[in-house]
Amino acid sequence: MPSKPIVVANWKASTLTLKEAEKKIIDTYAQLGRDAAKVNLVFAPTYTHLAMLSALFAGSISWKSKKNAKKPKKGKKVASSKLPKVTLAGQDISMFEGGSKTGEVPAEALKDAGATRVIIGHSERREMGDTRDDIVAKVKMALAYRLDVILCIGEKERDSGVEYLKTIIDQVTSVFGAIDKKSHSSITIAYEPVWAINNKENKSLDAHGLHSMVVFIRKLLLERYGETTSKGVAILYGGSVTPDNAQDILWNGEVQGLLIGRVSFEAESLAKVVRAILINPKKNILKTYGVPKKHI
Ligand code: PGA
Prior knowledge:
With 296 residues, the chain is an alpha/beta fold. The chain has helices spanning 18-32, 47-56, 107-112, 123-127, 132-144, 163-176, 207-225, 227-232, 246-253, 267-277, 281-289, and strands spanning 6-10, 40-44, 87-90, 117-120, 148-153, 187-191, 235-238, 257-260. An eight-stranded parallel β-barrel has the order 1-2-3-4-5-6-7-8, surrounded by four helices. Strand 7 (235-238), helix 9 (246-253) and strand 8 (257-260) form a beta-alpha-beta unit. The two termini are 32 Å apart. Bound molecules: 2-phosphoglycolic acid (PGA). 2-phosphoglycolic acid (PGA) is lined by residues 10, 192, 197-198, 238-241, 259-263.
């Protein structure tokens, strides 16, 4: 289980040029300063930018402090030693190994381009035709090439009965049941209720509702695959995460991280989300109500 919260910036098709992608990463780190090291940041840019970004951001982070972290001046390059090392993810992957499959991006090519993770089963891909079996095949392919998987699951709508829970059970078990138990911890589940994604009013699931779903998923993993899987799989939340709701969602929802769409399109708002989650309200509760040591 990760010791730092995971923040995945899913840029979708928002970032059209390499320059723009490069600048967004630099700006994000510049704004965060030392705080950047307190989270596991993952960027999922468009396929064609992966190789250049991984070559450019392969160094080690050396931002001194938020104050000293200067924003690079327009048109001025930052010395390569000052560039952070970034973790990159593909937004999708081919279910095919290679060969005569026009337009496909196979796992090996994705890995060669510098991605270490891949998002699979995003609802926008499911909407464009990815079936349950395609997703299983893609996960198997990613794992075969040692790419960690961010598996998106989520119901299209909430019914008053249990249909939405059945959807979750099917999305989880179709994948976990099809792969070796040893690979289970290479999968991170991103629970993203489809109705909350790209929601015009930024309507996310509330932290209490999320916590119930997290318990449901962990119980499902425990009953079907045992304790190691249930404890070893990180769960993220995605769907209208904003700087205002991020802290509550993460800490009270009891997830290990966030998968962020629109708010990650701008460095400034992404940095705001990261800063918001660095404050853990649960620890504060202990501080506020805990008995000081000298009184025990
Ligand atoms: P959103 O997207 O944050 O824009 O709602 C989340 C996602 O699609 O992963």
